[in-house]
Amino acid sequence: MFNKKKKEKQKKQQNDQQKKEAKKESKKEPISSNRYEFLQSLKEKLHSPSDLIIRYVSPTTTVIYVDNLVDISLLNEQVLKEVQNAKQGATPQDIHTNLKLPEVDVMDELNKTILEMLIGACIIHIEGFSEVVIAKISSIQSRGLSAPENESQVIGSQVGFNESIATNISLVRRYITNPDLCNEKFTLGHQTNTSLSLLYIHGIATEEQVNTVRQRITDLDIADIIDSAVLEGLIDDNSLSLFPQMLLTERPDRFCDGLLSGKVGILVNGSSMAILGPQSFIEFFQSREDQNLRWSIASFVRLLRFIAIFISIYLTPIYVATLTFHYEVIPQPLLVPLNESRAIVPFPPIIEALLLEIIIELLREAGAKLPTKVGQTIGIVGGIVIGTAAVQAGITSNILIIIVALGALSSFTTPNYMMGNAIRIIRFPIIILAGFWGYFGIMLAVCFIFTHLLRQTTLGAPYLAPFYPPRWKDWPDSIIRLPSTFLSRQGINNRNPQGNNQGENEGNNQKSEKKVTE
Amino acid sequence: MKETLHISNNQKINAFLLFFIVTATQIGVGIHGFQRVIYQDAKQDAWISVILSFLLAHIVVYIMMKTLDMYDSNDLYGIHIDIFGKYLGNFLNILYIFYCSSAFFVIVKNYTEVINTWVFPYLSSMFLCLSILSIIIYTFKGGFRVIIGICFFSFFFLLWIPPILIIPLKYSDLNYLLPILDNELKGILKGVMSMSFTIVGFEIINFVYPFLKNKTKYKRYVHLGMLFTLFLYLSIMFVSLTFFSGEQLMKTIWATLTLFGFIRLPFIERIEIITICLWMIIILPNLCLYMWAAYRGVQRMVNISVNKFLLIFSSIMFVSGIFINKRTDINLLNDWFGKYAFAVVFIYPFILFLCALLKRQIKKMQVSNSEKS
Amino acid sequence: MKKVKQLLLILIFCSFLIGCTETKILERISLATLIGYDVANENDENVTATVIIRQVSPDNKSTLETQTNTEATNQGTRIKVNLQTAKKMLAGQTHTILFGKNLAERGLEEPLHGLMMNSELSSSIYLAVVDGDAKPLIEGNYKNITDIGQHVYNLIDHNVQRQHTVSSTLHEVVRNNYSPLRDLAIPIIKKEKDIIKINALAIFAGSKMVGQLTSEEAFYVIMLRDKFKAGALELKLPGDTLDQEKNTDEKLHVAIDSIQSKRTIKLVDKSTPEYDVEVDLACRIVELHSNANVGKPDVTKKLEKAIGKEIEKELKRIVKYTQEKNSDIFGFGDDYYASVRNSNLTEEKWNELYPNAKVNFKVNIEIVRNGVFE
């Protein structure tokens, strides 16, 4: 049922796409050989912007570019110099050959020319020719490479993606020096014309999954993409689900690690987050850093994270359920402190818990929006002040404060922000269920979550793999992480059925890969 | 033989998942209080009844699988039609669908009864029924693989039971098991029959069979699954027999839960309350698979969409659930269902097997006759 | 798809509407922690229940309240108690239940049945008989006891764990009560000025209390019923055990602990019936009021023999006493039933058999080690 609809939608989209393409083709405009006409049409298209610079170098030659988009020094030293020195009657072809620039092109189509110019090219028009020379001298304005802020790790590289796709691709290329690393370019969004790259390693990535991603990207008919997170929401399997089905990462090492284990990656221009898929539920809780640690420590850390998920999702609901319905299960020594801490609280536990959870969320949200230094202060001061005041005022019990704080703390151990969000949000409905029907309500929620996770897929692969469907071979690298001799490089979820899979003879491959990353 | 079901490859499951399917379907609400029923018949030899009933179940399941193996890839409904023709076959199919539906109903009723008695005396059983139904519908809509996934995960919610049984073992008295075989054989055999309510569930392989990827080595997983159930039932039976005195066990309606109620851990008391709520995920695959089996049957007879089936099925379950609410009614229902299940699960497969053999012989003869002529 | 989703939504919505249930929010209920039952009147069925109720007052302090009421059934009493308290009373945190001696003598059948039927109560709570009535013990003022409910529970619990007295969880009591061949033994507690102490062991025939053993004798009861994992005992041996010159009347005091014992009961003759009971006991000497060198093998042997004899004597006496009272607290009947096929043993028959049963004891003592100072 669901698929059918999706297919219909896709068909519709395809039709639209075709129509639009047809439209575009019919609009294919030639470049006028007349300077005046050419400039006129250019201005018309661009709505005569103030930063369009037109320089009449000679009676026949014009250089046009958008201010601030081009590299001034290159413009001066190469383009203008060459054009001025050019002989009278030089054809665009001559200039093309003479220009000492890495990327020069000759075009005869107006719209494409304009697009190039908007990216940062400089156009040289010569009277009498319906072709223009395009010198790509765009000045890349991007911030320098800095440490990834959202996914920091102690051991491992400290470099993160930045907003320029060129830099990001170069980063990836430096991690993986491999002719099989494929890079497919797409332009998406008819308002923004954002460029994006589909990256995968040929022979390791599953053909089917690459096709799926390619298909989903080309089927998209959207106006704009500002960030890769938007794209991720558009191309994952079930965007209605609370849980993300593709990974957003700002770490090149994590990204490359994914590519090497057969995943498909997408880089979007203007966004410092790369998309990686297929990503199973378990993999969201694994950090790249785990591979850098000794296996025993990595296993411990992973187990800790999974306990943290449990605490973060269920601890507050269990508190609410126990205090509302199941006082019998409290051991006698714990009964007195619990009872006394709750004595003057005027609300039932469900209200109390929701109140405190919302306060914590408020603090977190405020901390995230404020500048880093102020944010931290707000978090700590707010937490302490509000917490103490709330207990003293008798609005909440101090035991609940501990529980809620523990829950919030645990939710931050998730190495992925998106998944961390999901874990935090899912608590609220469970608290409400627990407040209404105690442990029965919690169990309803557990069943629902299990079923929901089972129903999800990630690029067509099961979301709960390797647990279900059970793939015993992948289990050593799931909740725990055994020494590398027990592991296969590539999960079955993204294993290429015909390809030369890595990890068939694990030991060797492991070593060679390590060399590559070094 | 000729008729086969065509199941697409991505719908199929690995054979070893049968282990989880069998344990998930066998372990349901019966485990809460099966000791009493069997003790009534077999006294201190109740554990022998448990073993014997599993022995019988192994034989039955072997016969079932033999019957299934005669057909390439077909479920029981198809086999019925092939052997008995359209009308009688469909009639038998209706009986089996009725069996699956009543199993569903009995499980829901028993579970709500337990919740009402132990945890929420004032909670409307209509609400319990509705909430369980909504979860089942959600799971069911996910398709066969999701149902099997729930089977798989529910298995891990059982694993804590055997270790926790060590605690009441401290209070047990082995004398209560003695003297062995002091009762008439009749009582033990009667106990075997009483087990049928608790032990059924493995008949689901009749319907899962066409969905198996590898049909050559699946038998061992079914037997293994049943062995695990046997282990669980037997350990609970042993502990209960030695933990309770006879008269007391006879008066304890849910002996397993009373047993758990006795256990006191340093951080938690009254484990039975948690157990009861936790049991939802144990009965969920049970319910889903019975519903699914019923759906497969209905789908064969009438062309019905999933949604319509869900709507009709759940409203029947819900409405009939309103009328049966008293403990005495539920006990009657359990007794009746136990007998029905015994007939359907333990006796009928032999008849079916003989019929299938006969049919094959006749066909062979026909073929050879036609070759001769 | 849409329809099903709508249906699901309606289902969930309906669930919320009809799914209201009674809440038991911790601080809005009052918890009974200790319940005592007494005979209200010699002539009728009514039982007086005294309940210790733990409540929390808004100034963050737990307060205890005692409520007493008389009614024929538990539930009746509870309704009456609820009429007297500001918060709903619930019994799920009850850990101890006390019975007045009079009630115990009248029979515990009905109270026990009532307790088992209630799913609110765990079967791991302790039962005890009060020397006298339960009410004065519960209502009494104690200088050093703040929470009498918890105090009584801890008192019984730690003594049971240390095997100083017979374990009397509701489950075990009910188990013995419903087993026709075995009788109950429940510790007796007594109020003595400012303290509460475990005073003795009540023994029952059927469900009626018929006699009592001292708390020292409880040790032997446990030895016969079960095995020891860690027991302690003080013995008075005859004076001439180690020193021939001393008089027999002069007592030699010995204390042993870390006792580990195991008993095997064998039915030798099923008509009388006659039992052979063998007790293997390993222990450590902690105190010995003598200068004899315990390190010497012959001294140890002498001691072992004397201790064994003493224990045998005590065991014999206690079994005799229970036979007089016709109270089979050791489970000889169960052994009889377990080892005789087709015995068709009924309660009446066993009641006739037990007083005449012959029990032969053999106690093997092994002193494993003795202190750090010889």
From TrEMBL, chain A:
Keywords attached to this entry: Membrane, Transmembrane, Transmembrane helix
Biased composition (Low complexity): 489-510
Ranges that cross the membrane: 303-323, 374-393, 430-454
Compartments where located: Cell membrane; Membrane
InterPro entries listed in its UniProt record: Spore_Ger (IPR004995), UPF0353/GerABKA_families (IPR050768)
GO CC aspect terms: plasma membrane
UniProt similarity note: Belongs to the GerABKA family.
PANTHER family xrefs: LEUCINE ZIPPER PROTEIN 4, SPORE GERMINATION PROTEIN
Protein name per UniProt: Spore germination protein
Species name: Lysinibacillus antri
Lineage: Bacteria, Bacillati, Bacillota, Bacilli, Bacillales
From TrEMBL, chain B:
GO cellular component: membrane
Keyword list, A-Z: Germination, Membrane, Transmembrane, Transmembrane helix, Transport
Chain segments annotated as transmembrane: 12-34, 46-65, 86-107, 119-140, 147-167, 187-209, 221-244, 273-293, 305-324, 336-358
Membrane topology: Multi-pass membrane protein
InterPro entries: Spore_GerAB
GO BP field: spore germination
Major subcellular site: membrane
Pfam families noted in UniProt: Spore_permease
Compartmental location: Membrane
Family per record: Belongs to the amino acid-polyamine-organocation (APC) superfamily. Spore germination protein (SGP) (TC 2.A.3.9) family.
NCBIfam families (alphabetical): 2A0309
Name listed for the protein in its UniProt record: Spore gernimation protein
From TrEMBL, chain C:
Record keywords, A-Z: Germination, Lipoprotein, Membrane, Palmitate, Signal
InterPro entries per UniProt: GerAC_N (IPR057336), Spore_GerAC-like (IPR008844), Spore_GerAC-like_C (IPR046953), Spore_GerAC_C_sf (IPR038501)
Main localization category: membrane
Ranges for domain Spore germination GerAC-like C-terminal: 201-371
Membrane topology: Lipid-anchor
Positions of the Spore germination protein N-terminal domain: 24-190
GO CC annotation: membrane
GO annotation, biological process: spore germination
PROSITE patterns: PROKAR_LIPOPROTEIN
Cellular localization per UniProt: Membrane
Coiled-coil annotated residue ranges, if any: none
Family designation: Belongs to the GerABKC lipoprotein family.
NCBIfam families for this protein: spore_ger_x_C (TIGR02887)
Protein name: Ger(X)C family spore germination protein
Organism listed in the record: Lysinibacillus antri
UniProt lineage: Bacteria, Bacillati, Bacillota, Bacilli, Bacillales
